[in-house]
Amino acid sequence: MSKQFAIIGMGRFGSSVARTLYEMDYEVMGIDEDEEKINENIQYVTHAVAADSTDERALKEIGIRNFDVVVVSIGADIQASILTTLILKEMGVKKIVAKAQNERHGQVLYKVGADRVVFPERDMGVRVAHNLISANVLDFIELAEDYSVAEVVVAPTMVGKDLRQLDVRARYGVNVIAIKSGEQFNISPRPDDVIQHNDVLVVIGHNRDLKEFEEKA
Q1: DSSP code string of 195-207
Q2: Residue numbers of the chain with a pLDDT score lower than 70
Q3: CB of 166 within 8 A of CB of 195?
Q4: What strand order describes the sheet that includes 184-186?
Q5: Which residues 6+ apart lie within 8 Å of 73 measured at CB?
Q6: What share of the chain in percent tops pLDDT 70?
Q7: Residue 95: left (phi > 0), alpha (psi -120 to 50), or beta?
Q8: Fewer CB near the last or first residue (10 Å), C or N of the chain?
Q9: Looking at residue 99, what is its pLDDT?
Q10: Using one digit for the tens of pLDDT, what is the confidence trace for 194-209?
């Protein structure tokens, strides 16, 4: 049986998560105390409920414990976000993913029971900044405080060379974990794989090393 998701807070972030999961054929319940937001998204979720997520009784009536993952994507109301996460934890929800406005908010969410905290605005800012530094950087995802994954368009000087010749691990301290060639995705590149024009290297490493690679790639 596929996973079931509940999204609490159907603003821009929550509705985007809900719609993406729904289009991937997962069962998704959208929850928001604003009936207008529920009506706007009713066609993009399996079930839609208008309810106050800080009301434990309302969450019990919904059957929130039956969902595999509950995403708390409440927007500006930090107090409601924290209280909802705490209630979900106390009710025994299997996995709680919560959206945070800032680092301090994120720390509190972890303390009250969130299994994972996401920072949509911060993460998007990081991605845009890296794209501004180098037009070759298509995407940038932080894995931890000092380590990330980046998608980098190959430089003309790389075309026609294989990974062994490029030896980016020795030169820059980063590892190539995949090569994107158009619609093809090579998830386990070999040392003798040759780089083609417009290929994209997916690399992982320390942020300091990635920065040097981005600037010189």
Answers
A1: P-TT-EEEEEEEH
A2: 1, 125-136, 138, 217
A3: yes
A4: 137-142, 147-153, 200-206, 175-181, 184-186
A5: 7, 8, 9, 10, 11, 13, 14, 17, 98, 99
A6: 92
A7: beta
A8: N
A9: 93
A10: 999 989 999 999 988 9
Cβ neighbours of residue 36 closer than 8 Å, sequence gap 6 or more: none
Beta bridge partners of 49: 31
**Residue 15 Cα distances to 7, 37, 39, 70, angstroms:** 8, 9, 12, 13
Place of tokens 């998007």: 124
Measure the CA–CA gap between 35 and 192, rounded to whole angstroms.
57
- pLDDT confidence of residue 50: 96
pLDDT score of 105: 93
Which of 30, 23, 25, 19 lies closest to 3, judged by CA? 25
pLDDT at 76: 81
> How far apart are alpha carbons 73 and 40 in whole angstroms?
16
Cβ neighbours around 49 below 10 Å, total: 19
What are the tokens at 192? 């003798």
Distance CA 46, CA 36 (A): 17
* Predicted pLDDT of residue 1: 53
**CA–CA separation, 188 and 206 (whole Å):** 20
**Encoding tokens for residue 110?**
């972890």
Asked if residue 100 lies in contact with residue 109, where contact means CB atoms within 8 angstroms, the answer is yes
